[in-house]
Amino acid sequence: MRYLKEVLDSRELLANLTLREIRGQYKRTIFGQLWSLANPLASMLVYTIVFRFILRVSPPAGDPSGLDIFAVWLLCGLLPWTFFATVVTQGMGSVIANAGLVQKVYFPRIVLPLSKVGSVGYNWLFEMGVLVVVLVLCGAFVWPWLLLTVVAMFLLALFAGGLALMLAVANVHFRDTQYFVSIVLQIWMYLTPIIYPISLVEDQSVAYGGLFGTSITLLDIYRLNPLERFVAVFRQLLYDNRWPDPTDLLLCAIWALGAFVIGIAVFRRNEKKLAEAL
Amino acid sequence: MSEIAVRVDHVSKKFRLYHERNQSLKSAIMRGRRSVHEDFWALKDVNFEVPTGSTFGLIGSNGSGKSTLLKCLAKIYYPEKGSISYNGKIAALLEVGSGFHPELSGRENIFLNGSILGMTKKEVTRKFDEIVDFSGVEQFIDQPVKNYSSGMYVRLGFSIAINVNPDILVVDEVLAVGDAEFQEKCSQKFVDFKKDGKTVILVSHAMAAVREMCDHAAWLSHGELVAVGEAEPTIQAYLNSLNQGEGL
User: Does B209 lie in the same domain as B122?
Assistant: First the structure.
């Protein structure tokens, strides 16, 4: 409890560090915040060409929204994923990047990874705002679902933050972590139905049936991936415009809270040793 | 003078000297998590008290553990044994301008650095003019700090830190910043500090400065406390030991 109070007391510092990241990020660029859109747009273009036009992937149309635009469908999953991957990568490196500060000033170190959640989250909010405008222009009726979308965004931020906290500690002790994680994230992205619909996995799963004589299917294992649930929830809300599957939403919440609580516990236990281990 | 500002209670601090360190996952797994190291005690059972309102100097040769002790006092390192208790709010000044973002303006950096040092936004706002005035960079306060001269940079950093206004201030050898005029201002600030009944703990190699400012001192050698007490006899004892060393 005392730890939580200390973290709460340093919320102003957290806000200031987040602002530092946000303000410093696009300083001296002509396009400023617009650069935040450049990456998702480039990926969208590449994936749409490769997966839609060459490989002929066709996701189901939005139900009941009736949307059937691959690029928009893709973005509904890609933007959350990009946020997640960026928070994990940057949060993991945040303690090392601020080594000078950690070794010279006392402050709750936990604000370093958390400020990354804030600054990357700020960009994400901007991107999602643009996505909502695009969705509206395409004829989706997203307004009733925006509040729940924000809740889902918050849950994903907790999940990413929790992982970032654990990995930040691991990275201080073993610099291998950052290289390892960048590979894991690459694999993880393709194991999540972001650029292809989950129906393709279902087809394969049915074809194989129960694995090793059990009733566990390929799909069951595939769906253990927490990001699969998150992407599903975001698509249900934004692309389909309907209530998210309660199981999906509940699992998102469990994953998020679990990761965050463990992340804080791990970080707290190791926080005092960070300055020496750097 | 019976009140105690800081109590250093049998503090020992250990560092590991790694011969083969498991800094990569591979070596950790290959060697079964065991790394080869020996313990080095940078501080051995250091025990003293700093009276409230005193200016307390830590003296000793290089590698005597002064900086380690200072970092323990600043809560950057945590002692393996013993404890340090404080009576009041503590601020440490081990490096000035740490946490400055080069692309941000002086103004933005004052708020950022202030909150890193534990000030609230209200406090910074209240002291903003004083900080800017003390640093003498009014003219450039809205310029990015990367364009500052090194002198301006340190002066701004120092002004923020000195305005944290703690009950106990822990200072590394950062007094030697800026030009003569700025140093004069700094010493004046320390005198004011003392007048307000605040405690200052500082590390310095400049014996003249220690003599001038401190009324109490502790002498460390190889991680052990040799002497502690009134400044003059402690400094003299330390200097004598140095001269003897040269004589041998």
Answer: no
> Which of A10, A12, A110 best probes binding to B when mutated, by most B CB atoms within 10 angstroms?
A12
> Which residues form the domain of B118?
90-165
Whether A175 has its CB under 8 Å from any CB of chain B: the answer is: yes
**B82 and B173 fall within a common domain:** yes
B206: left (phi over 0), alpha (psi -120 to 50) or beta: beta
Which of B23, B101, B121 lies at the smallest CB-CB distance from A24? B101
Residue B113 has pLDDT above 60, yes or no: yes
CA separation for the pair A62, A73 (Å, rounded): 8
Q: How many CB atoms lie within 10 A of CB B196?
A: 10
Residues A230/A245, Cβ–Cβ less than 8 Å: no
A7 touching B (Cβ < 8 Å): no
Task: Give, in degrees to the nearest 5, the angle at Cα A198 between A196 and A203.
Answer: 110
With a pLDDT cut of 70, the percent of chain A lying above it is 100
Cα separation values, A3 from A117, A264, B70, B109, Å? 20, 10, 24, 27
Best of A20, A25, A271 to disrupt the B interface (most B CBs within 10 Å) is A20
CB-based burial, A156-189: b 16+ in 10 Å, e otherwise: bbbbbbbbbbbbbbbbbbbebbeeebeeeeeebb
Whether residue B19 has pLDDT greater than 70 = no
Quick: pLDDT tens for A131-142.
Answer: 999 999 998 888
A27 in B contact zone (CB under 8 Å):
yes
B77 touches chain A (CB under 8 A): yes
Take residue B4 and report the two structure tokens written for it: 């105690």
Helix (H) or strand (E) holding B144: none
Which of B142, B170, B141, B157 has its CA nearest to residue B69?
A: B170
DSSP code for A210: S
Question: Distance (Å) from the C-alpha of residue A85 to the closest C-alpha of chain B?
Answer: 22
Out of B146, B165, B184, pick the residue that ends a domain.
B165
CB A173 within 8 A of CB A167: no
Q: How do beta strands B4-20 and B168-171 pair?
A: unpaired
Q: What is the pLDDT of residues A57-97, one digit of tens each?
A: 888 888 888 888 999 999 999 999 999 999 999 999 999 98
> Scanning the structure block, which residue is given the tokens 């994953």?
A255
Which one, of A226, A230, A225, lies nearest residue A244 by Cα? A230
User: Can you give the CATH number for the domain in which B112 is found?
Assistant: 1.10.8
Q: How many domains does chain B have?
A: 2
Confirm or reject contact between B108 and chain A (CB < 8 A).
yes
Q: How far is the alpha carbon of B15 from chain A, nearest alpha carbon, in Å?
A: 9
The verdict on B103 and B140 lying in the same domain is yes
Contact (CB, 8 A) for B136 and B155: yes
Going A41 to A42 to A44 to A49, the CA torsion angle's sign is: positive
